[in-house]
Amino acid sequence: MGRFKTTQKREVPGLNLAALPDLIFTVLFFFMIVTHMREVTPRVRYEVPQGTEVEKGRKAGLVYLLIGKPVDAQGRVISDETRIQLNDRLVTIAQLPDEINKVRAGMSDDERQHMTISIRADRDTEMGIINDVKQALRKAGALNINYSATGKEK
User: Fold this and answer.
1) Whole-structure pTM over 0.90, yes or no?
2) Looking at CB atoms within 10 Å, which of 4, 128, 132, 145 has the fewest?
């Protein structure tokens, strides 16, 4: 029997990367759809109380008002004084009506018509502070208010 000689060297064929861009874009779209982007960065620590009648609200015209203890960038409590955060800014009760009017001025007509203040207060916040905030919101003409809470665990 004779031997077969190969005169050419065999190489490993190159990897076919034609489907790689499709795969990358599919994964990118998946993460874009399932990722929840935080609208407001909390500068105060708050733990919302539990509620019995919890329901979801509208997103259009929603303004977040956080009430709690101030925290630093790492999330550590800075002081025991209760602070108020409107969207991304810390405000006082006296500044609240003017700041609400500034936020309202930056909204579209539909959002302005359905503007709702979502109060997320710490469960240990004194009711007097929440009452003062409600009075300041009344001065600003922001009458649609909802209070955020977690559902009662069963």
Assistant:
1) no
2) 4
